[in-house]
Design brief:
single chain, alpha/beta, Immunoglobulin-like, Rossmann fold, 5-stranded antiparallel beta sheet, 23 strands, globular, binds 2-acetamido-2-deoxy-beta-D-glucopyranose, glycosyltransferase, signal, glycoprotein
């Protein structure tokens, strides 16, 4: 009996250790903790059982290290994902040094734990640019090319603002309808002049430029940024007599030349996760109701920003067994509230995923919830649209989402078919998740922005100068301790 017990224990230990070899630990929050200072640094852990299945575990993450006020203080979050793997993310309260990160299951170190860092781990708000943009992007593993960027920049191979600037300002200085900023990045400082009555959204453009400038040395460049919803630079055939002008927008469309950037919403979620923002591309991955227990209906909530949204509610009224769609606000179609109402209270976006199918319908332009819908645990039906965000061109219909006609007339038959093809639906859902991991997490958002500015700035042939009357967008003050280690490859002596 005793012997059996000993054997049994030995066996358990053996299984335990062989399982340990199947643990994967990866992600920028470990490999690049010192190179990629984010508000919420993140990495992934998955443990497999003997049969190779991923099993959810409660991991322990310990930080050793120093900060100005003693030991290194962090806030740590574990988010369990649909497939059993976990996201671990952490927010440094101050800049830390001599840091060791221990990733543990019980007492056992996982992956290459303990992870040790020679240099400082800065907080996101420290102005400590580490290397010129191109080098930094290589260090953090950014792709060196992007199809959308390549195609957006084709009409803008030689950008001469000496002649373009006055024409752009003349054409788009329409304070009531256009909000536009002229930015200049010079010696890693950001300057701008804005035109238009509503220019509050410049804070989002400031945020991405300032955040990149804290991490890397941006190339000198001049750019125009459209702060409004609609892309501006219409292709217009014979009606267009000037341009096209290089203008950056958050939303692109098939009939405009605007250069697309990640939306202000994605940028803010990437930079402000674990702080001002609760819905981001990682938090949305939290494991909700398991697939088998989800309600097999399409779900939708939102504002009445366009006609098709009312049509969707109409379909829900006719087919309550297949669609649960309601408006949360009437603004554009107040007179139709009787027919398409009553309006319902907001529900948490995370609760959308109690349903198997999500519908993505345009608002005024592309619906900026689309990335979050892809990151959740449901299958996304996407309405055909001429509008797009920076990543749509890498998606394939039928692979990461299911297409719907513009007028949604095929929604009902599509849901009926989806119900018959449950396994295929799970594959689409998983493809969407893989896409999100590859293209839409904070590192990818910074990489895309960096690559876009790098490629674009090369095409500017006019001198880049701070223009009279420009205002500086200043780095935020910080209470964190931000004494930078030496700046590599820094040829800007004035920094
Ligand atoms: C840019 O445009 C200005 C004004 O038309 C012109 O004088 C200048 O030569 C142009 N620069 C280049 C590099 O083409
Ligand atoms: C629609 O969804 C809401 C929120 O989940 C739920 O409270 C309501 O009962 C649903 N309506 C129908 C008709 O199923």
């Amino acid at each position: 009996m005793k012997l059996l017990q000993v054997l049994f224990l030995a066996l358990v230990q053996l299984l335990g250790s062989s399982r340990g070899d199947d643990t994967r630990v990866w992600g920028p929050g470990l490999e690049l903790a010192d190179r990629l200072p984010l508000n919420a640094r993140y990495f992934f852990v998955e443990s497999r059982d003997g049969a190779g299945r991923i099993v959810p575990q409660q991991y322990r993450v310990l930080f050793k290290g120093h900060s100005r006020i003693g030991s290194c203080r962090v806030k740590i979050e574990q988010i369990d994902r649909v497939d059993g793997s976990s996201i671990i993310r952490y927010k440094l309260m101050e800049t830390c040094w001599n840091v060791e990160i221990h990733v543990l299951l019980g007492e056992r170190h996982l992956g290459q734990s303990p992870y040790r860092f020679e240099g400082k781990l800065y907080t996101e708000n420290c102005y400590c640019p580490q290397a010129p943009l191109e080098d930094w992007m290589e260090q953090i593993g950014c792709p060196s090319e992007d199809v959308q960027i390549n195609s957006d920049l084709i009409p803008f191979r030689a950008v001469n603002f000496s002649s373009l600037r006055p024409r752009i300002i003349q054409q788009y200085d329409k304070p009531g309808s256009v909000s536009l900023c002229n930015y200049v990045v010079k010696d890693n400082q950001i300057y701008r002049t804005c035109y238009g009555r509503y220019t509050g959204f410049k804070m989002y453009m400031d945020a991405i430029l300032l955040s990149l400038a804290r991490k890397t040395l941006l190339p000198d460049m001049e750019l125009f940024v459209n702060l409004g919803d609609w892309p501006l630079v219409t292709k217009g055939g014979h009606r267009r007599t000037t341009g096209p002008y290089p203008i950056f927008s958050w939303c692109g469309s098939e009939d405009t030349f605007d250069i697309v950037m990640p939306t202000y919403d994605l940028v803010e979620a990437s930079l402000e996760a674990m702080s001002r923002v609760s819905l981001d591309m990682l938090s949305v991955q939290r494991k909700g109701v398991p697939w088998e227990e989800k309600v097999p209906k399409a779900f939708w909530r939102g504002r009445d920003a366009c006609r098709e949204r009312l049509d969707l509610v109409g379909l829900s009224q006719q087919h309550p067994d297949l669609v649960n769609a309601s408006l949360t606000n009437f603004f554009f179609f107040r007179d139709e509230e009787k027919k398409y109402g009553p309006k319902v209270a907001h529900i948490s976006f995370f609760d959308f995923f109690d349903y198997k199918y999500q519908v993505n319908v345009d608002g005024t332009v592309a619906a900026y919830r689309f990335p979050y819908l892809l990151g959740g645990s449901s299958v996304v039906f996407k309405q055909a649209s001429k509008y797009y965000e920076h990543f749509y061109s890498k998606l394939e219909q039928g692979r990461e989402y299911l297409p719907l006609k513009r007028d949604l007339s095929d929604l009902i038959e599509n849901i009926q078919r989806a119900r018959q093809q449950d396994d295929e639906m799970i594959t689409v859902r998983d493809n969407a998740k893989a896409f999100v991991d590859q293209h839409l997490l904070p590192r990818s958002i910074l990489c895309y922005s960096g690559l876009l500015f790098k490629e674009y700035s090369r095409n500017i042939v006019s001198p880049v100068q701070i223009l009279p009357g420009m205002e500086q967008a200043s780095q935020p003050g910080t209470s964190s301790y931000c004494e930078c280690d030496s700046v590599e490859g820094n040829n800007h002596d004035e920094l």
